[in-house]
Each structure stands twice: as structure tokens, then as C-alpha cells.
Design goal:
This protein has 308 residues and is an alpha/beta fold. It has ten helices and ten strands. β2, α3 and β3 form a beta-alpha-beta unit. α2 packs parallel to α3, α4 packs parallel to α5 and α6 runs parallel beside α8.
Length: 308
């Protein structure tokens, strides 16, 4: 996958990015209002990904985004989704989020790593997300197990606040290490990329403060020869924004995150919902984001006005 030493040295001026504290996460994402016809700011009638950059992919390849489930249940569920929707890449959770080497259940990490590979076979790209749950020694041990079973990448092995720990794990392993979903500072992303703390960078449009700032991270990654896989863990409008970003940015070439989980707060907000076809999602070609807020949501939503 073009790991160590494959990229160009990051230009010094690429790190000179303006820094502002982002707005609260619930108000972020689209960098502009989502109008009744799905149009954010920008030229009328132009899809959002074409405004982000001239380079456009007509489809975006996907990977399933997980929650904690027993290994046997997860294998059955993922096998069904692979058969029905054509997913060719999936991600599982290991350890416990920020868990200090704990596990969601005793021995679950070791069992799910081996069981999922045995159950899904060699042709599915499997990745694992530790959600910052490990110390450096434990992360390296888990990473070696992932390597042994042919996993694709290892996400956030150490707490995101300890970039140096993640860098140690990255240097020790052959499997690609990814991270960045919880970071919101552009200089921090510049530092992460320059020191090669990760092999794949994962900005979250919500945390970083909008699609424009996430795009800057993707540009930094492209300049350094590092893939960018934006983090997207739910089916809210965040998924639509991320889809357009992934379609527009050359660094977003790997399978992108696509949550199969549903939550009450994301239902009946917008339409049409993007549909997975043979493991890919066609990028909307309608104006703006390619979706509309549902009238029922607009009528019942709380309204607030923010003044400068």
C-alpha cells in the first residue's frame, strides 16, 4: 500500500495553515447552510464535490464501520452484508475505547481477530480499530496479530492525545497505522503527517470543523504521499459531506468509512439516502450535496439564530 518512504517530503509551506478553534461539533459539517434543494454555499447547480476540487470520482468504495459485538455475531452480520451489498472491506473493534489495555470482554480481541478472518476468508480487507485503548507494548502485540492474519490497517492503537506513542507503534509495525479522527487542530495534523506518526490520516469533518478544513488535511496528506480516509461513524448528514470529500480528493483512494448502524437522532432528516451498490456508493450529481432536508424534519426541528 506504499507505506514507509513511499511519499514525498512534506513541503515546509504546506504546514503554514491558519488555525481557528472550530464551532461546537453539532453545528459543524457542511461549511454552509443546507438549503431546501440541498445547495450549500457556492455556484448554483454545481455538486459539492466539484466545488471542492476538479478531481472527481463517480463512485466511492466503502468499508463497514463497527460497534462492539461478540465475534460470532459480528461474523454472521458482516457475512450477510458482504453478500447483500457487496462490501469488500470491513472494520472491527478491538480492545476498549481509551481502556488502558482492557477489553470489551475477556479475550475478545484475540478471538475476533482470528474468527473474523477465518469466517470471512482471505478476499475481504479487514481492519481493526482500538479507539485509543492500548499502551505501546500492548498495541504492538495486537498489531503483530493483525499482521499475522492479513489485516489491512490498525486504527488509533494508542490514545489520540499521545501522538508520540502512536508514532512508536507505527515505526514498530508493518501493518499500516491510522489515526486523527478526534483531532481538531490543523497544526496538529501537520505535525502528525510531518513526523509520520500514522500511515493513514483520518480527519472527521465534524471534529475538524467542516469540509473546508478537512480538505486542507487531505491536501497535506496528498503532498506527503499519505492516504486520507476521513472518519465517518454514523448515517447523519456527516455521511453525505464525507462522501463528497472522498470523491473530490486524490488522497482518499482507499475504501471509505460507511456506518451500517442506525440511531434515532439520524432518522428522517434528509433524503434521498445514498445506497450501497456492489460495495460502492454513486456520488450524487444533483446540485449542492445532492440531498434535501425532509419537510417533516424542517417543521419539527428546534430553531436557533446565531449572530456574529
Amino acid at each position: 500500500m506504499g507505506r514507509r518512504g513511499a511519499g514525498r517530503r512534506l513541503p515546509a509551506d504546506a504546514l503554514q495553515v491558519p488555525e481557528q478553534l472550530p464551532a461546537p461539533r453539532a453545528r459543524r459539517g457542511g461549511d454552509g447552510a443546507l438549503g431546501h434543494h440541498g445547495q450549500g454555499g457556492g455556484p448554483a447547480g454545481v455538486p459539492a464535490d466539484r466545488r471542492a476540487r476538479a478531481h472527481v470520482r463517480p463512485h466511492v468504495r466503502l468499508q463497514h464501520v463497527p460497534r462492539h459485538h461478540p465475534p460470532e455475531d459480528e461474523a454472521e452480520r458482516l457475512g450477510r452484508l458482504i453478500a447483500e451489498q457487496g462490501f469488500r472491506a470491513v472494520k472491527i473493534r478491538v480492545g476498549e475505547a481509551m481502556g488502558r489495555d482492557g477489553d470489551a470482554a475477556p479475550g475478545r480481541t484475540e478471538r475476533i481477530i482470528t474468527h473474523l478472518r477465518d469466517a470471512l476468508g482471505p478476499d475481504v480487507d479487514l481492519s481493526a480499530d482500538a479507539n485509543g485503548g492500548y499502551s505501546v507494548p500492548r498495541a504492538i502485540r495486537v498489531g503483530r496479530m493483525l499482521e499475522e492474519h492479513g489485516y489491512f490497517h490498525f486504527e488509533e492503537p494508542c490514545p489520540f492525545t499521545d501522538l508520540e506513542a502512536t508514532a512508536q507503534v507505527t515505526a514498530a509495525l508493518d501493518i499500516a497505522v491510522s489515526g486523527g479522527e478526534q483531532d481538531f487542530s490543523l497544526p496538529q495534523f501537520g505535525r502528525m503527517i510531518a513526523m509520520r506518526a500514522v500511515d493513514i490520516v483520518q480527519p472527521d469533518i465534524g471534529y475538524i470543523g467542516g469540509i473546508s478544513r478537512a480538505r486542507k488535511v487531505a491536501v497535506l496528506a496528498e503532498a506527503a504521499g499519505i492516504p486520507c480516509t476521513p472518519h465517518c461513524a454514523n448515517d447523519s448528514l456527516l455521511r453525505v459531506f464525507t462522501l463528497h470529500l472522498a470523491a473530490a480528493m486524490p488522497a482518499c483512494a482507499h475504501p471509505q468509512e460507511w456506518s451500517i448502524e442506525t440511531t434515532p437522532w439520524t432518522r428522517d432528516v434528509y433524503g434521498p439516502m445514498p445506497e450501497v451498490r456492489d460495495g460502492e456508493v454513486p456520488v450524487p450529481t444533483e446540485p449542492g450535496w445532492g440531498v434535501e432536508l425532509l419537510p417533516s424534519f424542517a417543521r419539527t426541528a428546534d430553531r436557533a439564530l446565531t449572530r456574529a
